[in-house]
Specification:
Elements (H helix, E strand, L loop, with lengths): L1 E4 L8 E4 L9 E11 L1 H8 L17 E8 L11 E4 L9 H4 L24 E5 L3 E3 L6 H4 L2 H14 L7 E5 L6 H10 L3 E6 L2 H9 L3 E4 L5 H9 L3 E6 L4 H10 E9 L12 H7 L2 E4 L5 H12 L7 E6 L3 H10 L5 E5 L5
Parallel strand pairs: 8-9, 8-11, 9-10, 11-12, 12-13, 14-15
Antiparallel strand pairs: 1-2, 3-4, 3-6, 3-15, 4-5, 5-7
The structure holds zinc ion.
The site of zinc ion has 9 residues, from helix 2.
């Protein structure tokens, strides 16, 4: 099979011909139709977000969708031919966190798809059957690549922060792969939304989708958010995760405010005043990926047309480098996807 292989940390992938993998016990072989390309993959490739001592070479790509081509021993053969999407975390399925649908907190986490096991930048990929979630009928496979991370992660955020119709939310990094779905999911949960991102074209895209938007290239962006929101906000979602954005988010929160953080840069800390937390009963919440149940709920929101996946650029597998450079430049709206020629 054709595959893109990361041989050393950096942004270079080598196109190679490799043997098609065989599914082991409890695993399925997926013929990849499309695989998402986003910042999480880039951070992994660069080596910046190394959490587990993963081994290279590795085929990256965790947001893949395709049809089950073969089942390993112990997997019900009825899965064959079924279109599935990859659940990102290699959770055990047996510990108390997995049993209570908190799979990202798994006690026996083996890592992530495309990091600790080969991912979807290839014609075929092997997944534990636990990680192969059904794609509902009627969803385009390219759109479906956005569901298991870019739509499901925001769904988990909204549940973590108990978002409801009384809320006004600000999203920092609102035109990125997760952000452009975060604003949509917040709207589904009933919140008013102000999106913040850098550059006129991204701000225009957010406005074209019906969202209030502010350009973060101007230093006055927090004041502008306050003006657009008509005062303080009750929910702030920071997808950029730098000290100045985190501090600005806390400053923007009014009483009952909830800051949700999703970034994992190990060198970043930011000051929070306990007096301010107490005075406004403000909460700072970490949000880690999503459960398998939440991925299925995310898929329902897409099927019902309440969230529209934004996969703005699609390229053949071999041209993944073009998407990588667009992401590094910060010029890609939403997600990109690669498609192994002939598989779709
Ligand atoms: Zn577990």
């Amino acid at each position: 099979m054709r595959a893109l292989v990361l041989r050393e940390h950096g942004y270079r992938l080598s196109a190679e011909e490799l043997p098609t993998p065989t599914p082991g016990p409890g695993e399925v072989l997926v013929r990849v139709e499309a695989c998402g390309v986003g910042l999480t993959v880039l951070n992994y490739m660069s080596g910046a977000s190394r959490v587990h001592a993963e081994k290279l070479p590795r085929i990256p790509g965790h947001e893949f969708v395709g049809r089950v081509a073969a089942c390993g021993p112990g997997v019900e053969s009825g899965l064959e031919g079924r279109r599935v999407m990859a659940y990102f975390y290699l959770s055990c399925g047996a510990c108390e966190f997995c049993r209570l649908a908190h799979e990202p907190l798994c006690r026996n986490l083996r890592g992530q798809v495309g990091v600790a096991s080969d991912g979807g930048f290839a014609e075929y990929a092997v997944l534990p059957a636990f990680n192969a979630l059904p794609v509902p009928d009627g969803v385009d496979p390219i759109f479906a690549t956005a569901i298991p991370d870019a739509v499901a992660t925001p769904f988990h955020v909204c549940r973590r922060a108990a978002v409801g119709p009384e809320d006004t939310a600000v999203v920092v990094g609102a035109a990125g792969g997760v952000g452009i779905h975060m604003v949509q999911v917040l709207r589904v949960f009933g919140a008013g939304v102000v999106g913040v991102d850098r550059g006129a074209s991204k701000v225009e895209s957010l406005r074209a989708m019906g969202f209030a938007a502010v350009d973060a290239t101007e230093d006055t962006w927090p004041q502008q958010v306050r003006e657009v929101a008509g005062g303080a906000v009750t929910v702030a979602v920071d997808l950029v995760g730098r000290p100045h954005t985190l501090e600005a988010c806390v400053d923007l929160l009014g009483p009952r405010g909830r800051l949700v953080v999703l970034t994992t840069f190990r060198d970043v800390t930011f000051p929070v005043s306990p007096a301010r937390l107490v005075a406004g009963e403000i909460q700072v919440l970490g949000s880690r990926y999503a459960s398998r149940w939440e991925v299925l709920q995310a898929a329902r929101m897409v099927v019902e047309g309440r969230v529209r996946p934004v996969v703005s650029e699609v390229r053949p597998l071999e041209a993944a480098a073009e998407l990588v450079s667009r992401l590094r430049d910060g010029t890609l709206l939403g997600r990109g996807a690669v498609v192994p020629t002939g598989n779709l």
